[in-house]
Amino acid sequence: MTDPSARIPEASATDHRIHEASGQSFNPKEAAALIAVGCNSLLVLGVLPILLGALADAGRLSNSEIGLSAMVELLSMGASTGLMGLVRRPRRLKGIGAAFSLAVALADLTSLRLSHGPLILARGGAGASEGVLLWITVGMIARTATPERWAGVFFTAQTAAQLVLCILLAQIVLPRFGPNGAFVALATVAALGVGAAVFTPSAFSPLTARPEDSGAPPPRGIIALVACLLFVAGGGAIGVYLEPLAHEAGLGAGVAGAALWTSLIGQVIGGALATFLAGRVRYVFVFVTGAAISLGIWALLGLDLPGWAFITDNAVSGVVAMTLAPFIAPMTIEADPSRRAAIQSGAAQLLGGALGPLLSSFVVDAQDVRGVLWLGGGLLLLGLAIILWLHVTNSGPKTTPASIG
What distances in angstroms separate CA 86 from CA 202, 206, 214, 363, 389, one per listed residue? Predict the structure, then answer.
């Protein structure tokens, strides 16, 4: 396998292929199809807050079941992404992508008549199928010569798609057709993913030709995944309490809703910024700077902010979060040059997104939720400390703007 710290030759003016670190490159049609498959897998995450709220209003979920349903779908998604990375060779990708796109659509349609426990189980099944689709896209990103750039493209595309669908559901579908209309819309989009799947490559090149480099990541790779999980859990612990934090500042639900919209817009901007920064800055600089800004943003959430400041704070938070996310790939690759940890990074982020809300439930009560700000900051700093330790103790070539991007 090519050394991940080696510089990739500059492409000619007529070279429009996306270079792999090893094996054949992807052509633009294949890359676009792979990004679309991944967007299909994560589309539901952008609409979960309004969909679960609508289900609760319809009496199909209790308030406590809202968090449980979201956690089950995230955990099953992360588990299936991780399991596929461990046991499945990236072969027959067209068929796998098409089959699991249909499986997601079927799970969405199955959810139409269900409530409470059976509905939560159906959402777990949907998450398992969505995780397989995400595994395909993460496999592509981990193999590119500039993984943070293509992660940035992916995050920008999927957040923009989530934003559009969220607006359609909130303004048109849910008011007219209720949560079942939302499930039909999700199923329709999932089924359309079959069209994208047929344009993906049939297989990916092996990450390494050495048999000893297959299977689970090495110890440093596992440590990098733990750091990723903790880093993401910090933001997840705080994000799930957006509306209660607004109420403690004396603000209404309308301000919390506006903060959610502006955060999604900020995430689109952040993904585009990460795409621009890829190959130009070190991932360590991005993590340290982003962590410092995040801590400042979260500290402000503990104050009684006016509405405009609360909304602006969350918009900046969205920019920072999505700027950071694509740089997880080069971090894991420096820790594990075989890129096995990079393949598992999507699962680690999903599991972190579920772990944060779980831990936050232990530090809040009916009168005060601001304990999540301390929890989120602590998780973020712990993750950052591990990331810096991995970087400082790395015995191989340090990544540079000209390496892994």
Answer: 19, 13, 8, 34, 26
